Amino acid sequence: MMKTIFTLIVALLATLSAAAQKLDGSWTGKLNVGQATLNIVFNIEKDKDNKLSCTMDSPDQNVKGIPAEIAVSEGAKVKISIPAIMAAFEGEEKDGMLKGTFSQSGMSFPLEMKQGKVERNRPQTPKEPYPYKTEEVTFSNTEDNATLSGTLTYPTGYEKMKKGTVPVVVMVTGSGLQDRNEEIFEHKPFLVIADFLARNGIASLRYDDRGMGKSKGDAANATTENFMKDALAAIEYVRGTKNFGKTGVLGHSEGGCIAFMAAAEGKADFIVSMAGTGVRGDSILMEQNLVLLKMSGYTDKMCSDYAKALRGVYDFIISKKTTGDAKATVDEIVGKAGISLPEPAKDNMAKIIEMNNPWLNYFIAFDPRPSIAKAKCPVMAVNGNSDTQVIASTNIGSIEKLLPKNKKNMVKTYNGLNHLFQHCTTGSVNEYANIEETISPEVLNDIATWINSVK
């Protein structure tokens, strides 16, 4: 009898081991959630003992590596739990497919998955070997105890160029922690820009944000000012090499704002602001929200009411008041405004207050206009008229009015380009992943031409 039980256990373990072998790898499927579809990826790995581990990616939302728990039972039945988003998948492996049901927040959707990852075509991403030299470098912002790692890219033919004459740009990413390539949806805009500049006689330094990639430092409490200090450390580093001529800053979005801050302090010989902000942070976020609501089909009245309530929430944060009951505070703001909002909208606003996020609290009250007005070095400020995150008409208009007169300045709005400077249809963030172009060739050419004209 014992021998029979032992035989059954061995057979069961052999079955589960075989299931683990079949499941090993990445599985991709499209989740139909009504008006939209989302690519979902489960990355399943096994260790030497055939024990499985799992993470989940949502490529269309630019989210990777969400921790998941996986269990496999007899018959290749699979259960994957994703606690962070309160979701789960239950199904089985059959005929080379994972077929089952994805559930979240009380809703269930059928999901069929096949092995492999979401493959996106990114034709502008440069491939090695490069016709120029790159160097892994490290530098420090000693004031904030941050150590930054990045890539210094020399232009093609640098060894034949006169030392101390080659222009160099420090690249500064937009808001949110990003790597040195500013990667988003497999697009690597900073790598594409660095490559194009290198082929046009311009050096560059791009680096991982503190707390991202190989860079170290306190990211949780960092504000735009802290990230500006990291950029100044990068400027000091490239100048310290004594290998280059004029040193500039190329910043995207929040990075464009930081470029103006560096210019105002006299730390940059020239700057390129790509979709940089030209008005106070709360105005940026208010416009973003209104555009998103309108694109989502909300009525003018609903948009107006939401904007009034959000204005009150931002004013509360700017005043640096505190509350023990964020929901009650939002209810009070809504009441004083004489409007009515659905509960989910008020819950979202209460979360903004509850987060008490240092970066957001700083950004809401931050006004870039004094820095813009002090930027005496040559400035290239560009945006796309389809940008739905930093609205060109508002921000480029403000920048152009405030900039000190300089015959070398270039202020331009590109027709049909979004926040990433891609040619687009609507400018919506939802388009970014499906556009193959990483950045408009016209923008790349203009940046290189302009830098070479002011060097």
- Tally of helical segments: 12
**Percent strand:** 25-35%
Distance between the termini: 87 Å
Structural class: alpha/beta
Which percent bin holds the helix content? Answer: 25-40%
The total beta strand count reads 16
Overall average residue pLDDT: 92
* Large-scale geometry: globular
Radius of gyration: 25 Å
Stretches where pLDDT falls below 50 for ≥5 residues?
1-18
Strand order of the largest sheet: 1-2-3-4-5-6-7-8
Task: Spell out the key features of this protein.
455 residues, 12 helices, 16 strands, 35% helix, 25% strand
Short précis:
This protein has 455 residues and is α/β, with parallel strands linked by helices.
